[in-house]
């Protein structure tokens, strides 16, 4: 089991194990990197495709995928890698699931402190675990079996199932009650209303079902298991989340969750050993204050306490450590002035631009050299698309173009971009075009007097700084690779010189050519005569 699991805001996962090894999982979970060793002995990294995981890494990858599917936006469901109770097998497409609560009564588990409620219907089963603090919702996606009914022409006219179309096995996922995904919000809110009603009168099952659509929801599409179109942008190294932030931090005891917007909050919850039942839950009252709400669930009762960073309960080391960590993270969120949240790779789809629209806009703007280059797709250095925000482009000559979803287009020349990257607090110029009104405005004091264009200027600053950090990181990596290559060349050259010196020192007459010379019989006779003459001279 992993000693520490971290999920970032783009659903990438970093897992640290007790032996010191790490696994970095891509946001789409299609590939990962295993890092082993240390900086003293050397670090070895190997890259793998998830669907081709070896048997030695399979237990670790399964635990990482279980953690990822619990908190990620979209699950990664592969039968060979996910446990049998969380796999996805299909010969069709299970897209919609419907519960009819009037068909059968919900089952109430008295011994379950988390209050489990189940609805049985004709097409499936849903299990919703709602803790007594009513802050966390565990959703088990339903098991759905669809059947093809064939009409029998016998005397007894019955519908007999003859074929199974598809099976959707459950996937357990965890959500905050105030931050439910769109496809589940109406359904869960309706269930919460029903639970509130049944908690007052368990024998009553009267509920207004005027809006039939509230008892339906569409299942999220599973991620592709084979490959990712944005795989070349995955940064699967120890600095892969250079600009992203931690979303989930899970240790062997505590799980922390950080939300950066609507509203900003920090949560910490403790579950049992099997990660099934909630035991303790902490949440910030207000990110600006030092007070926390503490839900303690013991003996099937939930008690709410308000704690302060400056007045903690004595003799409770676990609560003390949790509040201290949440306090440090709270100060980090408060002091964070800017952040660039990287979106998951499956949402970064390239926008197909309308060339006619761009040409029309260029003609309206006049003969500026900047606008004449905006449609040069071959000179783009980096681009990304963010849903409901816009299309961001950074060109090789360092000028940028941002096409917002509401029709505004922002341009900055390379000189303006360089000035912004050197000091984002200094005023710079930019040009903003409103396509709807067909007007162009030059903003000269983008920092001190942004006016109504503050959000566009802020986005431009974030985009410039993000690309600058990307460039700096790539340059550092390229420089490190060049240094390593040069050191290897020097080491190899030194070794070859040492070998050559050693050969020369141990050889009397180093051969000039590869030709082997033999002594003739006359040469041998002359050598023997000289030797005999030398011997006679010495003896006399």
Low-pLDDT sequence parts: 84-110, 112-126, 142-153, 155-169, 348-374, 507-516
Strand content: 25-35%
Structural domain count: 3
Query: Helical amount among residues, as a percent range?
Result: 25-40%
Could you walk me through the main structural features you see in this protein, from its secondary elements to its overall organization?
- By secondary structure, this protein is of the alpha+beta class.
- It has three domains: 4-76 and 225-335, no CATH class; 88-218, no CATH class; 349-470, Arylsulfatase, C-terminal domain (2-Layer Sandwich), CATH 3.30.1120.
- Helix content is 27%, strand content 28%.
- The protein contains seven helices and 27 strands.
- It has helices at residues 58-71, 182-200, 317-335, 355-365, 414-422, 454-506, 521-539, and strands spanning 4-8, 13-16, 22-25, 31-38, 42-49, 88-90, 96-98, 107-108, 116-120, 125-130, 136-140, 144-151, 159-168, 172-176, 216-218, 246-250, 255-259, 265-271, 278-284, 291-298, 301-308, 380-386, 390-395, 400-404, 408-412, 430-434, 439-443.
- The strands form five sheets. An eleven-stranded antiparallel beta sheet has the order 5-4-3-2-1-16-17-18-19-20-21, sandwiched between helices. Strands 22-23-24-25-26-27 form a six-stranded antiparallel beta sheet.
- A hairpin with a 6-residue loop joins strand 18 (265-271) and strand 19.
- The chain is extended and about 130 Å long.
- The model is unreliable at 84-110, 112-126, 142-153, 155-169, 348-374 and 507-516 (pLDDT under 50).
- InterPro entries: C5orf34-like, C5orf34-like_C, C5orf34-like_N.
- Residues 6-69 form the C5orf34-like N-terminal domain.
- This is DUF4524 domain-containing protein.
- Pfam families: C5orf34-like_N (PF15025), C5orf34_C (PF15016).
- Residues 380-466 form the C5orf34-like C-terminal domain.
